[in-house]
Design goal:
The complex is a heterodimer of chains A (147) and B (183). Chain A has 6 helices and no strands. By secondary structure, chain A is an all-alpha fold. Chain A folds into 2 domains: 94 residues, Cytochrome C biogenesis protein (Helicase, Ruva Protein, domain 3, Orthogonal Bundle), CATH 1.10.8; 47 residues, no CATH class. In chain A, helix 2 runs antiparallel to helix 3. The radius of gyration of chain A is 30 Å and the shape is elongated. Chain B has a single domain, classed as 3-Layer(aba) Sandwich (Glutaredoxin), CATH 3.40.30.10. Chain B is 42% helix and 19% strand. A 7-stranded mixed β-sheet of chain B has the order 2-1-5-4-3-6-7. With 183 residues, chain B is an alpha/beta fold. The chains are: A mainly alpha (147), B alpha/beta (183).
Chain lengths: 147, 183
């Protein structure tokens, strides 16, 4: 009974995903379509990809990706086509250029700084522990000798 | 009492980072996409005339003078908001105004223009949104300012109100007009 219910649930998911299914001659193109509309951001929404948006522009762009794939365009050509029209906004993975350098390398830079700070802190603590004043080392010696 | 100066460095760095990020995220409307098409020629197209479906319009039809290209649709509420201002511009400013009827039904669009007035020289029927995609349009209305060579000089997203005309679009048009007078 439970398994039958799960099966029905799976079937309904399948039909939902097929709402604006496009015909593809082979699975390779279909998978590339899925990957591309997953990677491209819907220009009208703040944080939804083309695959997840119901807006008119997202539908049009999904159709456009489909058309370009059937024309034999490569993934890079399609991303470039979108970039020329909608700019940085449409790419979830920003391109490496002067404006996005901070985005790409900022976190690495901050991590490096954190490592340097941590390293220096650890080292300075060590030297503090090792350095005994002269009076202290005499006391230490005395304590050791008494034993 | 002496404060260890080294302790102030991370604090200062943190405060600076917060300030930079706060400004970076607030400077512009996150919904706004800067246009990639500024200083590029108006994309090529081949679309039917809304009122004369036998006629095919191309980019050559909107070249030759300073013009406004307005992307609109009957389903778009802000298009109705800006409509009176578009009519005023077409009557008083002496600038050619062309419409791109975006993802719409032609019969509805014709009826809409009959009801609210038609400020456009002609309308291109973009019922698949292909020209809109080439223009990088992500919502309606959007308005483009073209120079006489058909090169896009400015793009406004949202309704063209009186204030938008005065502060954003008219200065661009005026600059183009003086450049034309000189050249």
């Amino acid at each position: 009974m439970r398994i039958a219910f799960l099966f029905i649930l799976l079937l309904s998911l399948e039909s939902q995903a097929a709402i604006d299914a496009y015909p593809f001659p082979n699975d390779e193109l279909r998978l590339r379509h899925i990957a591309l509309i997953d990677e491209l951001r819907c220009p009208q929404c703040l944080n939804t990809n083309l695959a997840g948006s119901d807006s008119m522009i997202a539908k049009d762009l999904r159709r456009e990706v489909h058309r370009l794939l059937l024309e034999g365009k490569s993934d890079d050509e399609i991303l470039d086509y979108m970039y020329q029209r909608y700019g940085d906004f449409i790419l979830y993975k920003p391109r490496l250029q002067s404006g996005t350098l901070v985005l790409w390398f900022g976190p690495v830079f901050l991590l490096l700084i954190a490592c340097v700070v941590l390293f220096r802190l650890l080292r300075s603590k060590k030297t503090v522990v090792n350095e005994l004043s002269e009076a202290d080392s005499r006391r230490l010696e005395a304590l050791v000798k008494r034993k | 009492m002496s404060i260890n100066k080294n302790l102030l460095i991370p604090l200062t760095a943190f405060v600076l980072l917060v300030i930079v990020l706060a400004f970076g995220f607030r400077l512009e409307d996150p919904h706004y996409l800067p246009s990639e098409l500024i200083d590029r020629p108006f994309p090529e197209f081949s679309l039917k005339d809304l009122h004369d479906p036998g006629r095919t319009l191309t980019a050559a039809d909107i070249k030759g003078e300073i013009s406004l290209v307005n992307v609109w649709a009957t389903w778009c509420p802000n298009c109705l908001v800006e409509h009176p201002e578009l009519i005023r511009i077409s009557q008083e400013e002496g600038i050619a105004l062309y419409g791109v009827n975006y993802n719409d039904e032609s019969s509805k669009a014709i009826a809409w223009l009959e009801r609210h007035g038609n400020p456009y020289k002609f309308n291109m029927v973009d019922d698949n949104g292909t020209l809109a995609i080439d223009l990088g349009v992500y919502g309606a209305p959007e308005t483009f300012v073209l120079d006489k060579h058909g090169v896009i000089q400015y793009r406004h997203v949202g309704a063209v109100t009186r204030g938008v005309w005065k502060s954003r679009i008219f200065p661009v048009v005026e600059l183009l007009q003086t450049q034309m007078g000189e050249g």
